[in-house]
Design brief:
The complex is a heterodimer of chains A (358) and B (273). Chain A has 358 residues and is an alpha+beta fold. Helix content of chain A is 25%, strand content 36%. Chain A contains ten helices and 20 strands. Chain A has a six-stranded mixed sheet with strand order 6-7-8-3-9-10, with helices on both faces. In chain A, strands 13-12-11-14-20 form a five-stranded antiparallel sheet, with no helix packed on it. The radius of gyration of chain A is 24 Å and the shape is elongated. By secondary structure, chain B is mainly α. Chain B has one domain: MetI-like fold, CATH 1.10.3720. The chains are: A alpha+beta (358), B mainly alpha (273). The interface between A and B is medium-sized, with 33 and 22 residues.
Chain lengths: 358, 273
């Protein structure tokens, strides 16, 4: 049974330092939401409030419409995978998996079936009699996931599930995680600081910044249509160009550091453009001529930083391209991949400048 | 530069330390233990009590016939102190390890305060506050507890909040374990070595306690250390030596066990998770 989770204007401060500032969001039953943000943005605080390990100062948390304010952690039916895994060192893998069943006095038949099922799903069968101290980091991660899933939580919370693993291991665990989540069909909230994990694992992505929701939406939308400069820079690299758009004929055009571009759908006036590397292409003998400032070789491509109109921007060149700082190259723009920021972005609020803990 | 490496200096100072330890601790004990088994005439220590003691097979059986009750009383009292220290100290240690407010700090200071006060003052304070508690031995038990408790609470507190026990408790809570189940299934098993070390510490403190006991006991409640004092003041040396040896025989295994248990928990669970 997966719950619909609603968070309404949730606030929490540590002393005088606010960690969550009127955060509202809703998690659809069975959906997977990635909660992403820089460290100190309040992600972990929100997770702890949902788990019942921390009491918010103000606001509400509803599970299927029911306020859980007075419900202690042990009666919320929430599964948590802690960043450090927090496995019980004195219990075997099997007893760790079954912990939530044992405290619920599940019959021994049901217990055995569930442990066997989880062990199979997560590939833990050969390890059931081991202790956490005798298995690898990736294996511990899977035990922690199994322990949180065993009692069929209404909501599964994962705190930086891949942060402690080396990149190769993280890839296989990411797949195992996605499979297990799909098989268990519960509501899932994944806390992560890794934008790639957020975009890959979530049906929805919520970006927190200094205790507030900066933007939420589908992963593609957050990347393609960021509403703020912060969101744009969080989910991808790119230069910010301020341009003047004006009506010309039947369309809107703007003068940019790499020439005049048509901006269909934009409104005339001052605009801010996010120029992602994929909006630009290197041409041998076309486009606007710019000066290369730096090149870093990345194997399958080269990352080229160039200066145009007094601003820096990044473009990816094909693997075989031989350029060096000081060279002139041609740049063309594909306007479909340009991001036009809404004009009225609130000036970086006081929230952005204060120090944070979470 | 001199030729001595830091390695040499370290081994030389270790040897010096060992010799000092032997001279200060082991040698006097060895003399006493030897005195309890050797013929006192060899040591030139024969006296009038030799006659009384000679009716017994050994000095030990003679001491037991004189002070067997004291020995039993000491053991009973030490066990009683262990139980009380556990009952009062484990919850106190648990609370103190979780709370960091002024009240908790005040309790912690209060617990340690008697250690800085002479036993004489503690004993007289107890006598004045609870004059009727002396005859039953309750004052005696309280006096021992005052000294055993801070050590127990320290050992137990480290065990109850050490490592990642608080985080493991949170993991248990979200898994559905209530307060009691968290304590029983997670905290207690993980803290067991520390609690056991604290209990043994309380036992050895009570077993060897003399100051407070001497003032708070009555002839019907006096303990073995008081008896030991009597043997030195009234009996001959072999009797006192035999009593001391008996006393050590009970304390040394407890201390050895304490050393074993106090080794890091990590060794029991392999690499910490």
């Amino acid at each position: 049974m997966s719950a619909r989770v609603e968070v309404r204007r949730l606030s929490k401060a540590y002393g005088r330092v606010p960690a969550l500032d009127r955060v509202s969001l809703s998690l659809e039953p069975g959906s997977t939401t990635a909660l992403v943000g820089a460290s100190g943005s309040g992600k972990t605080t929100l997770l702890r409030c949902l788990a019942g390990l921390l009491a918010p100062d103000a606001g509400e948390i509803l599970f299927d419409g029911r306020d859980v304010a007075g419900v202690p952690a042990e009666r919320r039916g929430v599964g948590v995978v802690f960043q450090s895994y927090a496995l019980f060192p004195h219990l075997t893998v099997a007893d760790n998996l079954a912990f939530g069943l044992d405290v619920r006095r599940t019959s021994s038949g049901d217990r055995a079936r569930r442990v066997a099922q989880l062990a199979e799903e997560l590939g833990l069968e050969p390890l059931l009699d081991r202790r956490p101290g005798q298995i690898s980091g990736g294996e511990r991660q899977r035990v922690a996931l199994g322990r949180a899933l065993a009692y069929r939580p209404v909501l599964l919370l994962l705190d930086e599930p891949l942060a402690a693993l080396d990149p190769n291991l993280a890839e296989s665990v990411r797949e195992a995680l996605a499979r297990a989540i799909a098989a268990e069909r519960t509501t899932v909230l994944i806390v992560t600081h890794d934008r790639a994990d957020a975009l890959r694992l979530g049906d929805r992505v919520v970006l927190l910044r200094a205790g507030r929701v900066e933007q939420e939406g589908a992963p593609r939308d957050l990347y393609r249509y960021p509403k703020t400069e912060y969101a744009a820079s969080f989910f991808g690299s790119g230069a910010l160009w301020e341009v003047e758009a004006r009506v010309e004929g039947s369309g809107i055009v703007a003068e940019t550091p790499v020439g005049r571009i048509a901006l269909p759908g934009a409104r005339p006036g001052r605009l801010r453009l996010i120029v992602r590397p994929e909006a630009l292409s290197v041409r041998a003998s076309a486009g606007t001529s710019v000066t290369v400032r730096g090149v870093s070789y990345e194997g399958d491509r080269s990352r080229i930083v160039f200066t145009a109109g007094g601003r820096d921007a990044v473009v990816f060149g094909p693997a075989g391209l031989e350029v060096a700082p000081g060279d002139r190259i041609g740049i063309t723009v594909d306007p479909r991949f340009l991001v036009v920021l809404p004009e009225a972005e609130a000036a970086p609020s006081r929230a952005a400048s204060r120090s944070q803990t979470a | 530069m001199t030729g001595a490496s830091s390695e040499q200096i370290r081994s030389i100072s270790a040897a010096a330390l060992l010799l000092l330890l032997l001279a200060v601790v082991a040698a006097p004990l060895a003399v006493v233990v030897a005195g309890s088994v050797l013929d006192p005439r060899l040591l030139g220590l024969a006296s009038e009590s030799w006659e009384a003691g000679s009716r017994h097979a050994t000095w030990f059986s003679y001491v037991l016939s004189l002070y067997g009750r004291h020995l039993a009383r000491s053991a009973a009292l030490a066990l009683c102190v262990v139980v009380l220290a556990f009952a009062l100290g484990a919850p106190a240690a648990y609370g103190l390890s979780r709370r960091k407010d002024p009240f908790a700090r005040a309790v912690a200071v209060l617990l340690d305060a008697p250690l800085a006060v002479p036993g004489l003052a503690v004993a007289i304070g107890l006598l004045l506050a609870y004059p009727r508690a002396r005859a039953s031995g309750a004052a005696l038990a309280a006096g021992h507890l005052v000294y055993a408790l801070p050590f127990f609470v320290r050992a137990a507190g480290n065990a109850l909040s050490g490592g990642n026990v608080p985080e493991l408790e949170e993991a248990a809570a979200v898994s559905g374990a209530g307060r009691w189940q968290r304590f029983r299934r997670i905290v207690l098993p993980l803290a067991r070595p520390g609690l056991l070390a604290g209990a043994l510490m309380a036992f050895t403190i009570s077993w060897g306690e003399f100051n407070v006991s001497f003032l708070l006991s009555t002839p019907t409640t006096s303990t073995f250390p008081s008896a030991l004092y009597l043997t030195y003041t009234t009996n001959s040396f072999p009797v006192a030596a035999a009593a001391t040896t008996l006393f050590l025989a009970a304390a040394v295994p407890a201390l050895a066990l304490l050393q074993r248990i106090a080794s890091p928990e990590a060794a029991r669970f392999g690499e910490a998770a």
